[in-house]
């Protein structure tokens, strides 16, 4: 391969001479004259040179809007500049997690793509007409990046390399950004232009898959699914599907559904849009909200069963459960009246929600995960949770031993203890949420060590077990009572029926006589 320094046709001594002449030229030629000279030299070089140059300005149009292409290229060159360039500039970019290092003015860096060498150089020029370019910060400087390459590679560079640079640069920018947690504003707020559709804060939730307590096999499965999804852009395109995936998280309170969402966001480095459905007025407003979300994001609708009346059809009644169901129906009615309270404001319907999730427009922006959470999966309409809409159903369950080990490691930094055997058995026999287990494991003072916390957990589990036993006994008793009442009622009804039949027969006989 040709040496990188030599391909531009400069030797060290030529460079030194050039720099000398450049300094003299700058000192003795007035600025307006230099502008003309440089213009003509530039044209002349274009005629004789074998190299093609493409210029990317920092600001586009009237010089007011920062060029996205410039930003992407700067991101792309950042790692190469850090490794090779002698003079770098640290840029504090808005919404960026860290400083972005880029080429300083009048610095250059080389890049290789498919065996072809190209050169990127960063330049700054003062503008003759200041009023045209002043960007409100009093600066009359124009920065630009120039890509230079041999003309024989023109086609490949323009068609392939540039697309590669812009794509990679955008990716780096997204990875480097500060992630946000968005929440939807009420329509009064955004119609009156007091705010946008979404308000945001920086997303700094510490949950990760490592700290999430659940069955390790299940956890691995979810991680693999997420990785596969995030890398499947071309696959989704090939099969003609919008690049999005739906997750349904269900399970009792405190089993880690919200924590799992945070862990997914941190794992994939996505933003989170927490959509409060009850404040969305109608279906078209819902679409507007969803259209205003960016790619690489998770749209979350928590407690979907409580947000709106999206419950499915009730199952056929089973006679045995009749009385149970009466109570259940009362609860249901209570819940419904609450929901209807919201519904007076919100007219979002099930079909509106379904259209929003997978209607035509849902393909408008890429790489999105939609997550619903619920405590009562059976109560959701099957249409809402069918595969294709909610592709993966994840049950978050009560804490078992594997999950406990993760919590013990997180909270007490231990991996084994004499009480583990006892705890394992108790956890199999008792339904305790990871939130409750975690609360027991958390030291409440400096004096509390792992031993004390584990003993507290054992005690708490034993109490829970006892409570559950008593509850089961009461349930059994109540069931027996119900059964007896039902049998009595049945017997009475049969007695009545018999009496009626007998009465009818006696009546008929009397009539005959
Ligand atoms: N699986 C888990 N792994 C680690 N921590 C957990 C887990 N489940 C619960 N926790 C702890 O309990 C707290 C409550 O959990 P979380 O809010 O995720 O529960 P949830 O399932 O969303 O409950 P709800 O149904 O009431 O919304 C969390 O802050 C976390 O500290
Ligand atoms: Mg929750």
Automatic annotation (TrEMBL):
<keyword id="KW-0472">Membrane</keyword>
<feature type="region of interest" description="Disordered">
    <location>
        <begin position="314"/>
        <end position="338"/>
    </location>
</feature>
<feature type="compositionally biased region" description="Acidic residues">
    <location>
        <begin position="320"/>
        <end position="329"/>
    </location>
</feature>
<keyword id="KW-0812">Transmembrane</keyword>
<keyword id="KW-0067">ATP-binding</keyword>
<dbReference type="InterPro" id="IPR025753">
    <property type="entry name" value="AAA_N_dom"/>
</dbReference>
<keyword id="KW-0378">Hydrolase</keyword>
<feature type="region of interest" description="Disordered">
    <location>
        <begin position="468"/>
        <end position="513"/>
    </location>
</feature>
<dbReference type="InterPro" id="IPR050747">
    <property type="entry name" value="Mitochondrial_chaperone_BCS1"/>
</dbReference>
<dbReference type="Pfam" id="PF00004">
    <property type="entry name" value="AAA"/>
</dbReference>
<feature type="compositionally biased region" description="Basic and acidic residues">
    <location>
        <begin position="468"/>
        <end position="496"/>
    </location>
</feature>
<keyword id="KW-0460">Magnesium</keyword>
<dbReference type="GO" id="GO:0005524">
    <property type="term" value="F:ATP binding"/>
</dbReference>
<dbReference type="InterPro" id="IPR003593">
    <property type="entry name" value="AAA+_ATPase"/>
</dbReference>
<dbReference type="GO" id="GO:0016887">
    <property type="term" value="F:ATP hydrolysis activity"/>
</dbReference>
<dbReference type="Pfam" id="PF14363">
    <property type="entry name" value="AAA_assoc"/>
</dbReference>
<keyword id="KW-0547">Nucleotide-binding</keyword>
<dbReference type="GO" id="GO:0006950">
    <property type="term" value="P:response to stress"/>
</dbReference>
<comment type="similarity">
    <text>Belongs to the AAA ATPase family. BCS1 subfamily.</text>
</comment>
<feature type="domain" description="AAA+ ATPase">
    <location>
        <begin position="243"/>
        <end position="400"/>
    </location>
</feature>
<dbReference type="InterPro" id="IPR027417">
    <property type="entry name" value="P-loop_NTPase"/>
</dbReference>
<dbReference type="InterPro" id="IPR003959">
    <property type="entry name" value="ATPase_AAA_core"/>
</dbReference>
<dbReference type="InterPro" id="IPR058017">
    <property type="entry name" value="At3g28540-like_C"/>
</dbReference>
<protein>
    <recommendedName>
        <fullName>AAA+ ATPase domain-containing protein</fullName>
    </recommendedName>
</protein>
<feature type="transmembrane region" description="Helical">
    <location>
        <begin position="6"/>
        <end position="25"/>
    </location>
</feature>
<dbReference type="Pfam" id="PF25568">
    <property type="entry name" value="AAA_lid_At3g28540"/>
</dbReference>
<keyword id="KW-1133">Transmembrane helix</keyword>
């Amino acid at each position: 391969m040709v040496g990188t320094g030599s391909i531009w046709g400069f030797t060290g001594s030529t460079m030194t001479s050039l720099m000398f002449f450049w300094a003299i030229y700058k000192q003795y030629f007035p600025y307006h004259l230099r502008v003309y000279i440089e213009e003509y030299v530039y044209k002349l070089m274009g005629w004789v040179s074998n190299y093609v140059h493409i210029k990317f300005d920092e600001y586009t149009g009237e010089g007011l809007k920062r060029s996205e292409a410039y930003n992407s290229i700067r991101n792309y060159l950042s790692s190469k500049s850090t490794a090779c360039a002698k003079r770098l500039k640290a840029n504090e970019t808005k919404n960026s997690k860290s400083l972005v290092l880029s080429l300083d003015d009048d610095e250059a860096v080389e890049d290789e793509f498919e065996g072809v060498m190209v050169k990127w150089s960063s330049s700054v020029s003062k503008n003759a007409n200041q009023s045209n370019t002043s960007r409100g910060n009093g600066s009359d400087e124009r920065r630009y990046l120039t890509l230079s390459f041999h003309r024989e590679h023109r086609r490949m560079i323009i068609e392939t390399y540039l697309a590669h640079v812009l794509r990679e640069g955008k990716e780096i920018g997204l990875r480097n950004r500060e992630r946000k947690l968005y929440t939807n504003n009420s329509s009064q707020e955004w119609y009156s232009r007091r705010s946008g559709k979404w308000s945001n804060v920086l997303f700094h939730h510490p949950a990760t898959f490592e700290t999430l307590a659940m069955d390790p096999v299940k956890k691995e499965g979810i991680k693999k699914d997420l990785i596969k999804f995030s890398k499947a852009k071309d696959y989704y395109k090939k099969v003609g599907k919008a690049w999005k995936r739906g997750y349904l998280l269900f399970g009792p309170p405190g089993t880690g559904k919200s924590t799992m969402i945070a862990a997914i966001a941190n794992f994939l480095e996505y933003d989170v849009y927490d959509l409060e459905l009850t404040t969305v007025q109608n279906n078209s407003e819902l679409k507007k909200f969803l259209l205003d979300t960016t790619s690489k994001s998770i749209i979350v609708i928590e407690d979907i069963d409580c947000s709106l009346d999206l419950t499915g059809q009730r199952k056929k009644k089973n006679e045995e459960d009749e009385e149970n169901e009466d109570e259940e129906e009362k609860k249901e009615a209570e819940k419904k009246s609450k929901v209807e309270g919201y519904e007076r404001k919100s007219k979002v319907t099930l079909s509106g929600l379904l259209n929003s999730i997978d209607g035509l427009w849902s393909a408008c922006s890429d790489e999105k995960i939609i997550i619903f959470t619920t405590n009562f999966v059976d109560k959701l309409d099957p249409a809402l949770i069918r595969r294709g809409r909610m592709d993966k159903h994840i049950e978050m369950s009560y804490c078992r031993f594997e999950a406990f080990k993760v919590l013990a490691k997180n909270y007490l930094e231990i991996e084994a203890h004499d009480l583990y055997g006892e705890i394992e058995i108790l956890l199999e026999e008792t339904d305790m949420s990871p939130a409750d287990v975690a609360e027991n494991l958390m030291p409440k003072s400096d004096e509390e060590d792992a031993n004390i916390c584990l003993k507290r957990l054992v005690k708490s589990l034993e109490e829970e077990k006892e409570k559950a036993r008593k509850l089961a006994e009461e349930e059994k008793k109540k069931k027996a009572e119900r059964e007896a009442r039902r049998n009595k009622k049945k017997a009475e009804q049969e007695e009545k029926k018999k009496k009626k039949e007998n009465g009818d027969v006696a009546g008929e006989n009397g009539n005959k006589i």
